């Protein structure tokens, strides 16, 4: 099964992508992981991306598309894949469509995780991360530590990342609305999009997503 997962920052894409990929036994293809892997391995695309990033420039679509397509061509993706963070804009969506058609393939579904903007702000701005281990994550409202500002796991200091403040989150949402949200209409025209509420527990959202996939109901 070939799936694209779309949603604003704070919708829980990373969490849901990992769970869905595991349930479906397909690789989770994350843009962030692609960049890190290509740069650390010193691939030609990785070198190109690193040069743009070090110069403070956006990585061109063709480099991002090249990395994603190379990953989709790996043996473990022969039975499908779940794309998280790609395509990021309509140009990348068009490029993906073209490459799939050339290969005689097509997408099965596009899942659109929907969450109210105020909830996104609350989720991200309330996040607190341990300085000793960034995998220890708390939330001032949803999963507060036993002692304010102190990690339950190791006793480290909890802090709010600079880009997790409300102003930055709202700017990230604006970028999402301008750049990424239009791909939903693009894929809707192909009858591929199912919108899923990202409110509720992680398990509830996963269940909704699985039920929305072709052949997965019941």
UniProtKB/TrEMBL annotation:
Keywords: ATP-binding, Cytoplasm, Kinase, Nucleotide biosynthesis, Nucleotide-binding, Transferase. It is an enzyme of class 2 (transferase). Coiled coil: none annotated. Its EC number is 2.7.4.3. Transmembrane segments: none annotated. It is found in: Cytoplasm. AMP binds at residues 31, 36, 57-59, 85-88, 92, 161, 172. Residues 127-163 form the Adenylate kinase active site lid domain. GO terms for molecular function: kinase activity. ATP binds at residues 10-15, 127, 137-138, 200. Pathway: Purine metabolism; AMP biosynthesis via salvage pathway; AMP from ADP: step 1/1. Residues 30-59 are annotated as: NMP. It catalyses: AMP + ATP = 2 ADP. It comes from the Bacteria. InterPro entries: Adenyl_kin_sub (IPR006259), Adenylat/UMP-CMP_kin (IPR000850), Adenylat_kinase_CS (IPR033690), Adenylate_kinase_lid-dom (IPR007862), P-loop_NTPase (IPR027417). Catalyzes the reversible transfer of the terminal phosphate group between ATP and AMP. Plays an important role in cellular energy homeostasis and in adenine nucleotide metabolism. Consists of three domains, a large central CORE domain and two small peripheral domains, NMPbind and LID, which undergo movements during catalysis. The LID domain closes over the site of phosphoryl transfer upon ATP binding. Assembling and dissambling the active center during each catalytic cycle provides an effective means to prevent ATP hydrolysis. NCBIfam families: adk, PRK00279.1-2, PRK00279.1-3, PRK14527.1. Monomer. Belongs to the adenylate kinase family. This is Adenylate kinase. It comes from Streptomyces synnematoformans. The gene is adk.
